[in-house]
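A student in our group prepared the protein record below, which I am reviewing. Thanks in advance; the entry in question is below.
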Amino acid sequence: MVAYVVLANFTDQGVRNVKDSPKRADAFREMAKTFGATVKEIVWTQGRYDVVTFIEAPDEASIMSLSLSLGALGNVRTETLRAFSAPEMTKIVGQML
């Protein structure tokens, strides 16, 4: 599985319906399963982003399909970051010249 961090901001629609945000998060967890992905954590944040989500997905195509499906609902805009664990990063830097 590949790890991703998804940074999200509410759209105008998402803010108007912000009281439903926890329910939408539960629905997103279920949606992710249909793409073979697992939502590890969803947190609401103050500052530049409204929501930060940690996801594991089988591949880039799966996370892309999930992200597009989420965006199509109209409540958030996302930025997805590929994340690396400490062991993965150790291997990566070990391959440096």
